[in-house]
Amino acid sequence: MNYKYRPMGKRSILRAAFFTIALFSFSCPVASDPDLLDTDVPEAIQIVTSANSRSVRPMSQEEAVQLFLGYRNRLNDGTLVTLIDLPVGPTRKHFYLRLTNKNPVQVRATWSRLVFSGRVRPPIEADSPKEALEWLASMPNAIGYLPASIQDQRLKVLLVVPND
Amino acid sequence: MNNFTLNALISMWVLLASSPSTAQASPSGNDNRETENAGPAPAVALNDASPVRFQFSGFGTLGMVYTDAKDLRFIRPSLSHSSSENPDFAPDTVIGVQGNLSLGQRASIVVQGISRKNTYNNYEPRATLAFASYAIAPFLTVRAGRMRMPFFMLSETSDINYANPWIRPPTEIYSLVPFNDLDGVDLLLSDNFGKWNVELHSYFGGSSAHIYQSGKGRLNGSGLDITATNGRLTLFAAHGEARMSMKWNDKDFQNLSSMLASPFVLNGDRILQDLSGDKGRARISSVAMQWDDTRWLLIAEYSCLRTTRYTPNAQAWEITAARRYGNFTPYLAFADFVRHRKNGTITSEKTGIPDLDAAVQAFTAPRNLGQSRATLGLRWDFYRNTALKLEYSRIRTKNNSWGSLFPTDLAKPRVENRRINTIGASVDVTF
Predict the structure, then answer these.
(1) Is residue B91 predicted with pLDDT exceeding 80?
(2) How many angstroms away from the CA of B413 is the closest CA of chain A?
(3) Which pLDDT band holds residue A11 (cuts at 50, 70, 90)?
(4) What's A31-54 look like in SS3?
(5) Do B387 and A135 touch (CB under 8 A)?
(6) Fewest CB atoms within 10 A around its CB: which of A41, A115, A154, B235?
(7) Cβ–Cβ contacts within 10 Å for residue B206, how many?
(8) Distance (Å) of CA B45 to CA A53, A138, B42, B135, B143
């Protein structure tokens, strides 16, 4: 990284602070963010529902983003869907990063605003991928995400979120 | 690399096996495939015992604020009671819990209760949401009961500090009106256009507020908000109109009103009508934006309050720039609150009696929130769903105005035209 010395403003602490923020913002590209690199890159992630959820059709990336950011909780035909979240971990983190370009804090903040204004129900968090799989396989109109390596006849794939 | 190749192969296989799964796939070709896939029907018994019909969630902030002036304390005007402690935990500490009960596909009930130091100087819990909602159509929901008065971009979640970069939403804007509840009905019209989600929010109803000491305020009106977001950029505009009553009942006001009511005081009646009563009208307009990408969080808000009585016209703005470095988010914010009618006083009438005019002026000053502020802060997301925030603010109160500060000794208030430093620290959680 190139840290370039820039003379600081002399007039006030605030100006100095502003320059400090500006300096860091230009000299630290986001790719150097250790939080984004310290985990193994997970496999491709698939958005799935129960094979029995006949009204749930494969979806576009835009629809998936809107569902998983809480901007809609119904499909175009009016079907109310229930979102299933994996427990906190690399798959969940990278799913949201790849699909919505938001980190876990941003996702949580976005959902907090929607849930606590009474707009939408929060996703249901499973204790494990196995539990999520069971819920997704058995609950009609439940939509969730799983590592693409998980295959199950009871599931229907709606979208594969590609590896970056 | 092996993992990567394997994963790529698996994902390709999944793509091929379920060809409808990409956005580009033709929808018409998918239906048959879906029906075929649906073959062995799984047990649907879990549908009845689905893991959730009721969901519980909550939020909280433990916050303290230190004021560097011995004779002043920081307050959240119209939200919290003044305190003599320094540092003070009253302005920002809050806990809230919420239950969402779904009743089938269309109906639900939401109840939210919070506890925070209120204007009665206690922590008695109160309902901030208690409404029933019904989806008339996929894009149209009607709600009735207690909601939040949605005058500003973040008013519906102004207690959810985890969702914001700062310790608290800008007091300049969020204290413009002391009415936080909306007891009434609203309609949410929400639709998606490409990457954009657009929500029209119309509402009507009323709101009551307990104001300084033992006064009461009441607002009845209606309004319309529009919010458009594509996940990164959010645009917000709102307009509300209401009838407003404001009835002070503190000793200062009782003394003042008995003097003004005297038939020998010029304009006394008119001044009283400007100060307190139930014939006010208010119009509140707001525009706001938020930009939220992986690096930057930029927020700008502007709100304007026009009233006929009880409080002068005012406008407030704030602008925030925050930059993310992993789990650290430093931010810089500026805000300003200007009362711009009648030189910051509630009434332009004069009695001609210097002492009485001074008393009227002294009465209006605590009700004027005019101040400008610069804030430098740091948010640290040090644990799951938990954020630590540190904030330094420099507040300058304006002429004839107390801003968000309150004197420890009401007998000798000296708040106007002061420069005050505050330091805040808080931990926010959601669960």
Answers:
(1) yes
(2) 29
(3) low
(4) HHCHHHHCCCCCCCEEEEEECCCC
(5) no
(6) A41
(7) 16
(8) 14, 8, 9, 26, 31
* Bridge partners, residue A82, by sequence: A142
Structure tokens at A156: 């229907």
Sign of CA dihedral B159, B164, B167, B172: negative
Tokens 């990408």 map to which residue?
Answer: B293
Distance between CA atoms of residues B116 and B96, nearest Å: 9
Look at chain A and count its residues.
164
Is residue B365 within 8 A of residue B402, CB to CB? The reply is: yes
Do residues B328 and B379 lie in contact, with contact meaning Cβ atoms separated by under 8 Å?
Answer: yes
* Model confidence, pTM: 0.82
The residue written with tokens 């300058």 in the block is B396
Q: Flag if B11 and A41 touch (Cβ within 8 Å).
A: no
- Adjacent-strand bridge partners of B406: B73
Taking the mean position of all CA atoms in its chain, how far away is CA A97? 5
Q: Under an 8 A CB cutoff, do B327 and A35 touch? A: yes
Helix (H) or strand (E) holding B348: none
Interface predicted TM-score (ipTM) of this complex, two decimals: 0.83
User: What pLDDT does B45 receive?
Assistant: 31
The answer to whether A150 contacts chain B (CB < 8 Å) is no
In DSSP terms, A83 is beta-bridged to A143
CB-based contacts of B378: which residues, under 8 Å, 6+ apart? B328, B329, B330, B331, B389, B390, B391
